[in-house]
Amino acid sequence: MSLHEEVDMLRRIPLFSQIEPPKLKLIAFTSERVAFDAGHTLFHQGDAANAAYIIIEGKAEVIVEGAGGPVVVAVLGPNDFFGEIGPERPRCAPTPASSRSGFPSSCSCG
Hints:
This protein folds into two domains: 1-30, no CATH class; 32-110, Jelly Rolls (Sandwich), CATH 2.60.120.10. It starts with a helix and ends in a 5-residue tail after the last strand. The protein is elongated. Helix content is 17%, strand content 38%. With 110 residues, it is α+β, with helices and mostly antiparallel strands.
């Protein structure tokens, strides 16, 4: 995907829709593109909140641990945004890819 295509993709996401094109270009340029196979868990509930993702293709499930076991609380698809970024803040839910998925990570903190 070209930088121009990534900027257009970001513009379609409500969170980014009002951001000026030069800033969207910077976000797209500094983002890291990652891909995950179905079943791969991106993070677990309680992990450090050090990355956020936008789904380009595929799907991901947001799962939380309920009293009776894991509960799927959302199924996300293309142009959906998920994850958390914050200092010393734990993740609120694990998110496994439910099909082969590609994501640009909006932050890739060590």
